[in-house]
Here is the input.
Amino acid sequence: MRYVLIDKLLEFRKGDFARAVKCVTRGEPVLDGDRYPAPLVLEALLQTGGTLARISLGPERRTVLGKVTKASFPAFAYAGDVIDLEVELVQSRPDGTMCSGTASVGDTVVGRAEFMIVILPPEMSPPLSPEIDAWRRNLARALGIPVTESDPTESDQ
Amino acid sequence: MAEQMDEQMDEQEIISKVKSCVATALGRDEHEVELESVLSTDLEAESIDYLDITFQLEKSFKITIAKDELFPQKIFQDAKLVQDGVVTPAGLEELRVRMPYANLDEFQSNPRLANIQDLFTVGLLVNYVKAKLAA
Here is the structure.
């Protein structure tokens, strides 16, 4: 099961920075009372960083989380909040990136993280699920970044 | 004499910074990181940590480390260079070319692939950085 936690990408500077939003709705089964779980705030930052890394460095490749080196959650996000996700690529290599991200609701920081995204070599990049692949290709097209078309017969995993 | 001292200080600075990089990447205290520490066994580095160490060294020394340069892996997948879990003479030669900063004396006496991880010590990283900075 995969969750896409980026509702909208607001700003994208290839190889540098991305800003996205995650809208927390009351209907989400993951809510803990009114609270949005901190690990999912982290996951939203990671997805923003993963998207930034992949679209910047290899749209046809798969990215995986290498490690989270720092994370803190100074406050909670609640149902009805719009979480602003900002991630910058601090360091990039052909095989990975170091990212720094901040999640905030208005002026309140609800999460900070530093993390490593690994860019898998082609032989270790299994096909994406059709939904994620379509989202990725649409995003790349919107950003004017060429991507290779995947084989529609390929299945997830 | 002064020149020798400068060189020595430079080397101490390199050692100190390499230890700091390793400690940061592996979440260790710097006093746990010795020159002879083997990354995998003594410091329990996992595969992803080698990439982190590479990031730390690049940042700290402002160098660029090509993929597969510091921690070569592809050569160990070549059947000419590794046979039945043992690095062949051609493989040893390849290692000498790819890793001139590594001391292969002990490894070549028992060149089992399983022993290759023992080469990757903090001292090897120091030698690598010195060679890289001198290039």
